[in-house]
Amino acid sequence: MKSAAASRAVALAAALALVLASAFPFLAGAQSEFTRGDRMPYDAFDKLSKTDLDVPGGVIHVAFAPGEIALPKEKVLDWVKASARAVATYYGRFPVSDLKLLIVPVNGTRVRGGTTWGYRGAAIRVMLGRDAGEDALRRDWVMVHEMVHLALPDLAERHAWLSEGLAVYVEPIARAQAGDLTVAEIWQAMMRDMPQGLPEAGDRGLDNTGTWGRKYWGGAMFCLLADIEIRKATGNRLGLQDAMRGVISAGGNHEHDWPIARVLATADKAVGADVLERLYREMGGKPVTPDLAGLWRDLGLRPRGEALEFDDAAPLAAIRKAITARPN
Question: Are 75 and 62 in contact (CB under 8 A)?
């Protein structure tokens, strides 16, 4: 049973909430308007004032939902530009010509998540902790992750592993190519987290197993294997980066719905190799368990306590270097 003091506290909190809601109805309503549901609030976004940022191959229209943030908005815009630069570095251009980007202040000291849509034009909503500092934005991965989603056509839900896996795989590589992350940090994270993508008992392949680990890290594992196999097939001249640039060049981005077969065939055509389609035939409908320990060894990755050493004499060392090298 609640004590009298506890009951009074609950009543006081409820009364205070009513007072605040009546005193600031616009702010309360606006927050719910911009945060509720799983759809982009396009109409509400259009009513906000915006800052236009020119990026290679496109324009980002940035709007801030009502609410206070600790950082000057210029610092937030710098973060957006740096993220867009990383994505444009990887893909050769920004994936869409016109992006609506909604920044929503929420409680916290970091970026709290994001979502990407394309059904009424490319759009991203990112939840930014109102007390986030510059260091939190420098270390953030969410903005680049969401922008990478723009570079892939919208797929059926059962193929979400490719959309999420590609974003998990490309995000750190793009940041490293732009000079925002070290190569060692990329490989340490992959070695630490990629085992979460391995199939477990009862797994039925990437298309038919919707667990978090398979969707995100299983998809990232598919992308790493594809990158390596493309480089083997092309004498290390081309990689997954070139394959996905081919998808964009063919008009494939998040504003369009494509079947997965078209995405993979377009990517393979761009590099002149049957790699993604073959891997999909192998991994899409049944579990495949790669030897990750052997793969790390062949790539020349040697953990030394909390550090990582590179063995440049390893069989796949040249491929490892090429994967993270800044494109010409």
Answer: no
